[in-house]
Amino acid sequence: MSGQSKIIYSYHRRKTYQNRGIIAALAGALVLAALISLSVGYSSLTFADVIRIITGSGSDNEILVLFSFRLPRIVLSIMVGMGLSAAGCLLQGVTGNALADTGILGINAGAGLTVVLYVLFFGTGSMLAVFTLPVAALTGALGAALLIYLLIRKKTGVISPFSIIMTGIAVQAGLSALMTLLVVKLDDTQYAFVSSWQVGSIWGANWHFVLALMPWLCILLAVIMSKVRVLDVLVLGKETATALGVKIQNEQKNLLFFAVALAGTCVSVSGSISFVGLMAPHIARRLVGPRHHVMLPVCIMTGALLVLVSDTIARVIIQPSSLPTGVVVSIIGAPYLIYLLTAQQKYHERN
Amino acid sequence: MKIRQKKSLVPLNLIVTAGLAVLIVMMCFSITQGAADIPLKTVREAFLSFDSADSYHLMIIDLRLPRVLTSAFVGAALGVAGAIMQGITRNPMADSGILGINSGAGFAVALYFAFMPNLGYGGLIFCAFIGAAFGALLVFGITAAKRGNDTSMRLVLAGAAVSALLTALSQGIGLSFQVGVDVLFWTVGGVANAAWKQLSIIAPVITAALIGGILLGPSVSILNMGEDVAKGLGLKTGAVQGLCTVCVLALAGTSVAAVGAVAFVGLIIPHVSRFLVGVDYQKMIPASAVLGAILLVLADLGARVVSPPFEVPLGVITALIGVPFFLHLSRNERSGR
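^ inputs. structure came back:
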């Protein structure tokens, strides 16, 4: 027995080191990606330039480019990646479904519908759009989530994950249909705008958005990190979770609310980069296993890294206009997930 | 997925007979409706004593009849394809789209509009089918690339990843070559271009695959209990999954090629039939076929009569009819439990 427990102990210790290594590697990659992202773009700077400007000896022009245009966009893409991947992780945990992402809360479809309406009525040209469009998107996202909540609400008892998914699918499908009905009425320019919004692009980034988003994101992420044990237990199923003393009903509601809040605020500035929420949790699970206290941070960092790298590539690849970030996210992320599916054995060993 | 141990609400025979009756009545009604209203008497005459000089007769035989038949076939095909996918992946969010069929076809169609828009309608259908087959092969190849136990889980994930990739690529192509709107119009679907020539290709394929799907029903039921249980019961899970995939590809691939990626039918119809006849796939698959056909004929009718002479996209109507009905069913189901 003692031999066996020793093996298990050393296995756990090895895993702990390995997981710390993965987290450190991700953090390093994130910093590196941010620096590279600062240096590339329409007006190219060298790496040394970036360091020089950061340390305080750049020309006004360089400071403007770096701190007013690039840095907010980078910070925003990191924040959006964090928020969406955390929301995806919560939803996959609560519903127990591998295909769950922010789409099933109707957030993408709801936000999409109001954005199309906005474009139909006010056009895309006005400068006001930078500030009013996120508000419109947020309203749509929260409206759809509220609609789903009203439909699945029950006076007593636990909401079954099955009914969350079913109602979510139905509401999402209905809203998307309404959206399609309107989209076919748009002209080419409007359509290009709406479709790049739908795919997700971090546009109109400035410090105001960063400041508006930052407090929410920090509070919500901190709260979620305190719920990792609950998430671990919820994954085991309703009966087990109840037996272990989790008040499922409350926890479920809270977690769903956090997911809505996170995804809603992120979607309002980034459009629906929904694939991050679907994929980051799977990548994290395959890297460090299903325990949320490691998985969630890894998931959040993976999401941030993915969106940051994608946004950088999107900015650089077709200058001076840019490809929607969401397209690049899928083009980079999907092959990586496929690689993990075919190559790695870890996920199966751990389950 | 939760398996409800419950007797079926409605007997299968009733669903199939009543469903077929409703389907035939609706198809006849649908033929009379449209930009030009044709009385039922003329329809009967066109069938019994066809007169090639009568423009109404020509319209009925050459335009409306193939259109109605195409919607019925495609509806049945999408319903069954969705049911089989939900069965073998054990995931209520799965439909034929998860096999990469819709996104593969969409990708091929985007390429078609961007690089070779002169090939005509036949070329478009051909591209869409090749794309659908490519998407499905990719997903199935990735799933089969490694031996292991959780095939259904890998299928779902590989499907999601491949779909996302191909969709992103077609969106990228759409935006860079300014063909996004064309792709969108194809994606939302429509049976306006249905003709006998096309129907003569898809009808035999879909009929054969439908029969195949119904025969596979019992095996899908067993597979739906989980792969380990299915193996324990002596089912050749790999073979069944392979056959099911071929079946779904034939059903959904031809449908997508013929009418575009009509979303939602394959997702919702299996749930509706599950509410009605229970979880046994032997019953669910025929029920899905009938209900799918009804939904699509109804949707096509709606698409034509809502604002003539313009047509509302088919996918929009299926969702607008299907969603409230589905929500109603799922609410009743929960309060009844």
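Chain B has one domain: 12-37+67-336. Residues 231 and 237 of chain B are 6 Å apart (CA to CA).
thumbs up if we can close this ticket
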